[in-house]
Amino acid sequence: MAHGEEYIIYNGELQLRQHAPQTYVFQDIHTLDHKPRHIAQHLRIIDYAADKLFGLHCHISIKELEQLITKLLVTNHITHNTSACVRLELYASGDYSLRVKEVSIYKGYVMRSLRYETTFICSYAPLGKYPTSAMVATRDLMQQIAQARELHYLIMTSPDGQIVIDSSEPLMVIKNRRLYMPKLTTPSVEQQILERAALRLGLKTEHTVLSVEHIKDADEVFALNWQGITSMAHINQHPYMAILTEQLAQEMENGHR
Known about the structure:
globular
């Protein structure tokens, strides 16, 4: 493979990556040592979203997906003993692809060393309760705006002060040893792992419609994705802790040992 070439898997076959935009639902799958985690749960979520939005189902088996992901990582020379994100995209046409989205500097689920400086932005997000290409584009736009403001992150809010749902990167709030998380029909794989970790640590959990008011008087605020947890250092210059957040990240990974 020549330097700089990137391979994807399209409908089960290896090919060089092409940049033809399509509408899709997706799952970001955490892999470690070339082995994907929680494949069954990821398949259930993407199948549910594809059925609700496109009226189709994901017919990839667990075993086939595991084999394809390993093949993809080996072909793209992703090293062992490292975590990487593989994105499964299922298109409105019924076709699907797998690509290496990101390679982590960490191993397993973690709390990232970078803590975000952030603020609120009033914005709508299309069908945020589903993991779609529209939400990916919205998040990319928010990232560009944040960078232009010399911030790391923007928390999207509706005009009435509710936190805009992003099912693939949900926001979490901790106050008085209670974990508040968004109320979703299909929580992300990581949100499900986080909730089990919280219960093992003796934290109370509550599914609710999160708002700016939840955040203003919170002890800790963090975002969750395939890699684990990214904690907020400041929101509108107000400081937040990361004590229980760090414990939660450790417990998320401990559940795999």
